Amino acid sequence: MNKQIALVTGASSGTGRHIAIALAQDGCDVAILGRRSQELEETARQITQAGARVLILNADLRDEAAVKQAMASLLEWSGQRVDILVNAAGIPGPLGDPIGELGVEDFDSVMSTNLRGPFLTMSYLLPVMCRHGRGRVINIGGTHGMRGRAGRASYATSKWALRGLTRSAALEVGEYGVTANLIAPGPIAVDRMRKRWAAQALDQGVSEDVILERYIADMGTALKRPNETGDIVEMVRFLAGEGGRNITGQELVVDGGVIV
Ligand SMILES: NC(=O)c1ccc[n+]([C@@H]2O[C@H](COP(=O)([O-])OP(=O)(O)OC[C@H]3O[C@@H](n4cnc5c(N)ncnc54)[C@H](OP(=O)(O)O)[C@@H]3O)[C@@H](O)[C@H]2O)c1
């Protein structure tokens, strides 16, 4: 992937940060988008350390004008080219609220981050990729968008709809050599999740390993191991690399074997 240009949204933390750094290690110059400046600076530091060029795009994906401005800055920086777009930004929204109690503002916020955000970046960058005759779009969905989930209606709806957006894009841009796929991770052991498990361990007076074992048993994970950010990173590498050249319109579940 030497000297390809990648944009990774949600690169200020979690999975997006790991994806951005991995693409830099693979030789890409990487633009990173998010709202928290300090966290973006840290990702940028690690990208620079990997020997790649980096562009920080501080923007709120819910704000159309801000995204438009960010995409203009990106194209100026890259010389009007983007080879890889990874839409990793996302929020879980309210946890446990049934639909009757789910506030419309919360619902809208999840939809505009998880669905309208990827729509906006794709609407600006797909034409650029098509003109260039090459491109890889990788949207990060989630297994909650494969089967629905009580108490997670806004999140599940947004991730489910992202599949429709991805498949439609694949059909629209395939003839120009552009692919669009979605990775559907099960719960990933990001810092945010590890903090939750640590708090539960303290609460229940058991070790974090015990909490993790229970969690894996509850999930019914075939492989009996948690989903690590590295598992998602490797799938991104595959789809963005030579292995992914004839794969499009697909949803790749990375969850250790829950949805089987
Ligand atoms: N963690 C899991 O268990 C899990 C499971 C399945 C799928 N996923 C999906 O995987 C992706 C990454 O999740 P994660 O848990 O690894 O990450 P995370 O640490 O929660 O980070 C989320 C990222 O999204 C960005 N973001 C959120 N709202 C934004 C907005 N309005 N505008 C711009 N950026 C925004 C955040 O940046 P700022 O805060 O700086 O804006 C941050 O970089 C998400 O799409 C998530 O839905 C996660």
Automatic annotation (TrEMBL):
Pfam families: adh_short. SUPFAM superfamilies: NAD(P)-binding Rossmann-fold domains. Gene3D superfamilies: NAD(P)-binding Rossmann-like Domain. Belongs to the short-chain dehydrogenases/reductases (SDR) family. This is SDR family NAD(P)-dependent oxidoreductase. It comes from Uliginosibacterium sediminicola.
